[in-house]
């Protein structure tokens, strides 16, 4: 055999699986479709969840594996695989140490979202992330591992019910690597437009993906070909909402970004209000809210607010402030603005096709293709609630009920459902061995990270860092298991 195990995909779960298998004595090849390793686990994730880590114990965080287990099981209405959930939680603290020993250090930080401040700290944020990933890769190579970039896993080859190899495609050729074990770690299917269309509950054109584009469901397809289940709870990692330009994918405007992260008046595709907009302070729930509203909404501003924000700040918080601006440890500002160039910024959004401006609410309705009566009624009702200072419709915190939409011109900015990727699909046990639909182990086939089902239910839990922790810990568990049973 060329290798004891071939790992498909060098992102968070694949690197973890490959490193743990190699350090436990297996001869490992790690395949990566792109010319760089890391996947969303490197370009995207800033950290990961753990319970019972050294730092958590030192700080006296009162959060045990039991607490975490119950929190997750309650969140998913007990539809998580209990043994798998327990296995991930049990491994999580040691994984933080192991990553550190291998050069990828983290620090326990305050939870990144404002509404999670009273939750015990669980988020271990990467320090020196990109160099850290390189050090981990160096350790994999030093442990005898082989990294093959620009090499995609294509097909698992079996004889009887035994894995005997994997067909791979490189830049120049298609060839077979012989092995008895394959770990599918290629990150789900968010890069596959057809499958996203098939599984999303919204028009996929309305879904903005921040996920790994090279993750097109190769592993889940290979899994099905060897008798595995590849459609077990396919879930989108809904996360916040994004204003984007259909003209240029790279367009970004800081002012518009901040305005999106506020609980102003939001209107759905029917021209109606649809939520307590302070849901903006929980990214997963905000993401779910947009998803259930059909994939997009508009936030509304009037000229009075625009004029105000040009010179003044609002006593609110930008929901992303804690995540992006405080990485250097500066204190929260608890204010938004002033935005000196707000009018040019809004005009930029209009030019990019993401923003709309009209002298009256009814004209604005025509532009965003909703019923003028519906929009006008919604705005009147909202202004009435603002006057009362209380949101008796959706119970947004009263402290946000002070910005009416009264003075034209009026602006509407479109925010779209956003996903970090997909989770789930592959049916596996707590050792991350692939299972058939009647729950029999498929020898030699393992599924980890975003490819694996079992932890998440119908949405991405709000517990910070859980998705990446699932990737690192599922990979590590599978890698150890393969090495032991090779
Ligand atoms: C912007 C962003 C921010 C995020 N932030 C966080 C966070 O802070 N905390 C958190 O918990 N989670 C976060 N996540 C989610 C986290 O990144 C994922 O849970 C994790 O990366 C999943 O790991 P994975 O190994 O399954 O996939 P990935 O890390 O995406 O790795 C998959 C790899 O497989 C490769 N590949 C695909 N097909 C093949 C093939 N056929 N052959 C070989 N290689 C292949 C891909 O190129 C890629 O390198 C974030 C995600 C994004 C997009």
Strand content: 15-25%
Number of strands: 18
CATH topology of the largest domain: FAD/NAD(P)-binding domain
For the record, the CATH class of the largest domain is: Alpha Beta
Task: Tell me what you see in this structure.
By secondary structure, this protein is an alpha/beta fold. The protein folds into 2 domains: 5-231 and 426-484, 3-Layer(bba) Sandwich (FAD/NAD(P)-binding domain), CATH 3.50.50.60; 239-418, Flavocytochrome C3, Chain A, domain 1, CATH 3.90.700.10. 34% of the residues lie in helices and 20% in strands. It is built from 16 helices and 18 strands. It is elongated. Bound molecules: flavin-adenine dinucleotide. Flavin-adenine dinucleotide is lined by residues 8-14, 31-34, 39-41, 44-48, 152-153, 185-187, 210-212, 214-215, 218, 420-421, 449-450, 465-468, 471.
């Amino acid at each position: 055999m060329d290798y004891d195990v071939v790992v498909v995909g060098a992102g968070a779960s694949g690197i973890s699986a490959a490193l743990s298998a190699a350090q436990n004595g297996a001869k490992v090849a790690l395949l990566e479709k792109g010319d760089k390793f890391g996947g969303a686990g490197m370009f995207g994730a800033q950290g990961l969840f753990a319970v019972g880590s050294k730092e958590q114990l030192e700080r006296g965080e009162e959060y045990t594996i039991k607490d975490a287990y119950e929190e997750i099981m309650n969140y998913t209405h007990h539809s998580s695989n209990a043994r798998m959930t327990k296995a991930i939680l049990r491994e999580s603290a040691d994984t933080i140490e192991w990553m550190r020993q291998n050069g990828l250090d983290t620090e326990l930080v305050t939870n990144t979202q404002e509404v999670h401040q009273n939750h015990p700290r669980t988020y271990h944020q990467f320090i020196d992330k990109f160099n850290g990933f390189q050090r981990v890769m160096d350790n994999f190579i030093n442990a005898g591992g082989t990294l093959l970039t620009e090499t995609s896993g294509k097909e698992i080859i079996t004889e009887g019910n035994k894995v005997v190899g994997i067909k791979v495609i490189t830049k120049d050729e298609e060839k077979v690597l012989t092995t008895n074990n394959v770990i599918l770690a290629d990150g789900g299917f968010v890069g596959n437009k057809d499958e996203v269309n098939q599984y999303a509950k919204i028009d996929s054109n309305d879904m903005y993906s921040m996920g790994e584009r090279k993750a097109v469901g190769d592993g889940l397809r290979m899994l099905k070909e060897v008798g595995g289940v590849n459609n077990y709870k396919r879930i989108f990692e809904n996360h916040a909402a994004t204003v984007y330009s259909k003209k240029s994918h790279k367009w970004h405007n800081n002012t518009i970004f901040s305005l999106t992260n506020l609980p102003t008046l939001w209107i759905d595709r029917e021209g109606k209000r649809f939520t307590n907009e302070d849901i903006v302070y929980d990214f997963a729930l905000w993401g779910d809210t947009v998803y259930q509203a059909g994939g997009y909404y508009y936030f509304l501003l009037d000229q009075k607010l625009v004029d105000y924000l040009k010179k003044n700040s609002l006593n609110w918080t930008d929901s992303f402030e804690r995540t992006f601006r405080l990485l250097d440890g500066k204190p929260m500002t608890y204010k938004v603005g002033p935005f000196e160039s707000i009018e040019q910024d809004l005009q930029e959004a209009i030019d990019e096709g993401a923003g709309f401006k009209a002298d009256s609410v009814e004209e604005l309705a025509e532009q965003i293709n909703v019923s003028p009566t519906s929009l006008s009624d919604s705005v009147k009702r909202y202004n009435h609630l603002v006057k009362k200072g209380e949101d008796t419709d959706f119970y947004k915190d009263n402290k946000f009920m002070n910005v009416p939409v009264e003075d034209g011109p009026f602006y509407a900015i479109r925010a779209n459902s956003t996903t970090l990727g997909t989770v789930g699909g592959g049916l596996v046990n707590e050792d991350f061995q692939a299972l058939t639909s009647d729950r029999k182990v498929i020898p030699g086939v393992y599924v980890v990270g975003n490819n694996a089902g079992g932890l998440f239910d119908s949405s991405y839990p709000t517990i910070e860092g859980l998705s990446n922790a699932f990737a690192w810990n599922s990979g590590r568990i599978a890698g150890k298991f393969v090495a032991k049973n090779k």
